[in-house]
Amino acid sequence: MTRRDEQGQTQTLERTHTEKPRLFRVLLLNDDYTPMDFVVMVLRRYFRKAQPDAELIMLAVHRKGQGVAGVYPRDVAETKVAQVTAHARQEGHPLRVVAEPE
């Protein structure tokens, strides 16, 4: 690809290949103390899930031990983990949230 600069000179432009950022899954982990309603609220507030989707993910957490709340670039995933963990501790719940590479 070429273009002309301010003096009318032709310059060759190189195309650089940019890779998509690595994605991370944010997982909610089951515990025996965090109320199901709180998990649904977290999924709706922090992960923008619709009520039926939030309930399905909450049931996966309850029955299978973990559920995927979302898939994000690393910085977004880490931020969501920090926000949810802080909110859970503020409310007195031991809910564990982790991010792992997809």
TrEMBL record:
GO terms for molecular function: peptidase activity. Keywords: Hydrolase, Protease. GO terms for biological process: protein catabolic process; proteolysis. Residues 19-97 form the Adaptor protein ClpS core domain. It comes from the Bacteria. InterPro entries: ClpS, ClpS_core, Ribosomal_bL12_C/ClpS-like. The keyword Protease applies. Pfam families: ClpS. The keyword Hydrolase applies. Involved in the modulation of the specificity of the ClpAP-mediated ATP-dependent protein degradation. Binds to the N-terminal domain of the chaperone ClpA. Belongs to the ClpS family. This is ATP-dependent Clp protease adapter protein ClpS. It comes from Deinococcus arcticus. The lineage of its organism: Bacteria, Thermotogati, Deinococcota, Deinococci, Deinococcales. The gene is clpS.
